[in-house]
């Protein structure tokens, strides 16, 4: 095998013993999980926003962002449920580039996976401890789920992972809501197949164990747009797309039908400013159709302290080093407008 095995990493139980949660932190996580479940199953009429940087590249700016978000969340809590995006893994289309804090706690230094494991656990713990909000992260590597499963309030499965068996089966054993994105091809049936798999119990191999999952009744879809054979972005947030998804859901016996619309990625063509217009269009569709209102439970928005993006080492504090994001001023205005539209 043409692979160098450098060192054996600490297992999740050991890392959790090194960095344990307090009872208060666990209570915050359980409370937010219950609140989000109530949104997804229709017991609450609040609208969810999963919002934050494309990638959590440094602890100081991420913490400044989520503390601002906490104050904003308090202002709109009667209408919106805000979940901070703290994405510490970054999928790469070609495999090149910054892969997130898990790989490189410092983007300008070489990868160090042990430091990365510790850094992402400490960051998620700070978010939970200082804001009381349980963060969202992407499940890029299913075998790493146990390092953070006691901290996260939401888990997303990306477009390149949603067809993978291990991601689907692992999602079925997670105890918080899991959003499964449409694949890059845009196929709704593939996405719904993933939800169906995640909602059922399974027996499978996980970290060398024979594992038994119970099924996740809060597994749901995330619409993020697609790419055609010419590499062009194809949005799937329009009224017709949402009605089609509603009809497809009706054809299946799935629990808690729900959709989150990702207003960036292929839906915006990565033109970050378009997220504002797209978010408002989705809200208009919800007002126009009771079916869409019953299905679309939230939005996913990429937002940071500063507009746009920069190269690694660019020196702009709070600006994304991966996909471009909305800056804080535009984010705050958008969130308040979304709350007023409900």
Nutshell version of this structure?
The chain has helices at 12-18, 23-40, 59-75, 113-131, 165-171, 188-199, 239-250, 274-288, 290-295, 328-341, and strands at residues 47-52, 80-84, 136-138, 154-157, 178-181, 202-206, 209-213, 219-223, 226-227, 233-234, 259-262, 296-302. With 342 residues, the chain is of the alpha/beta class. An eight-stranded parallel sheet has the order 2-1-12-11-8-5-4-3, sandwiched between helices. The chain has a two-stranded antiparallel sheet with strand order 6-7. Strands 9-10 form a two-stranded antiparallel sheet.
Mean pLDDT: 95
The CATH class turns out to be Alpha Beta
CATH topology: TIM Barrel
In whole angstroms, how far apart are the ends? 57 Å
Q: Compute the number of helices.
A: 10
- Which residue ranges are poorly predicted, with pLDDT under 50 across at least 5 consecutive positions? none
Tally of discrete structural domains? 1
- In total, the number of strands is 12
Going by CATH, the homologous superfamily would be Aldolase class I
CATH hierarchy: architecture:
Alpha-Beta Barrel
Structural class: alpha/beta
Bin the helical content: 25-40%
Radius of gyration: 19 Å
The rough form would be described as globular
Order of helices and strands, N to C? Answer: HHEHEHEEHEHEEEEEHEHHEH
Strand order of the largest sheet: 2-1-12-11-8-5-4-3
């Amino acid at each position: 095998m043409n692979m160098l095995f450098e060192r054996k990493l600490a297992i999740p139980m050991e890392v959790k013993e090194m960095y344990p949660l307090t009872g208060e932190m666990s209570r915050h996580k359980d409370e937010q999980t219950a609140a989000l479940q109530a949104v997804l199953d229709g017991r609450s009429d609040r609208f969810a926003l999963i919002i934050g940087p494309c990638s959590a590249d440094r602890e100081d700016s991420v913490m400044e962002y989520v503390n601002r978000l906490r104050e904003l969340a308090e202002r709109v809590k009667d209408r919106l449920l805000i979940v901070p995006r703290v994405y510490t893994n970054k999928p790469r289309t070609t495999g090149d580039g910054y892969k997130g804090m898990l790989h490189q706690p410092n983007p300008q230094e070489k990868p160090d996976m042990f430091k990365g494991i510790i850094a992402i656990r400490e960051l998620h713990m700070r978010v939970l401890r200082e804001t009381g909000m349980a963060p969202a992260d992407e499940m890029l590597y299913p075998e790493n789920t146990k390092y953070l499963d006691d901290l996260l309030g939401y888990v997303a499965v990306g477009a390149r992972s949603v067809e993978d068996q291990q991601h689907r089966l692992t999602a079925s054993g997670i105890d918080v809501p899991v959003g499964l994105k449409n694949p890059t091809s845009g196929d709704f049936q593939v996405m719904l197949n993933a939800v169906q798999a995640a909602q059922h119990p399974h027996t499978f191999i996980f970290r060398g164990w024979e594992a038994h999952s119970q099924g996740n009744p809060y597994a749901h879809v995330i619409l993020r747009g697609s790419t055609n054979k010419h590499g062009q972005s194809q949005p799937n947030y329009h009224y017709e797309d949402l009605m089609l998804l509603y009809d497809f859901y009706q054809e299946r016996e799935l629990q808690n039908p729900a959709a989150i619309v990702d207003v960036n990625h292929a839906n915006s063509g990565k033109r970050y400013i378009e997220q504002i217009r797209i978010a408002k269009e989705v809200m208009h569709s919800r007002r126009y159709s009771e079916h869409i209102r019953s299905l679309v439970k939230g939005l996913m928005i990429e937002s940071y302290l500063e507009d746009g993006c920069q190269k690694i080492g660019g020196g702009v504090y709070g600006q994304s080093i991966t996909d471009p994001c909305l800056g804080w001023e535009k984010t705050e205005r958008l969130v308040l407008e979304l709350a007023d539209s409900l």
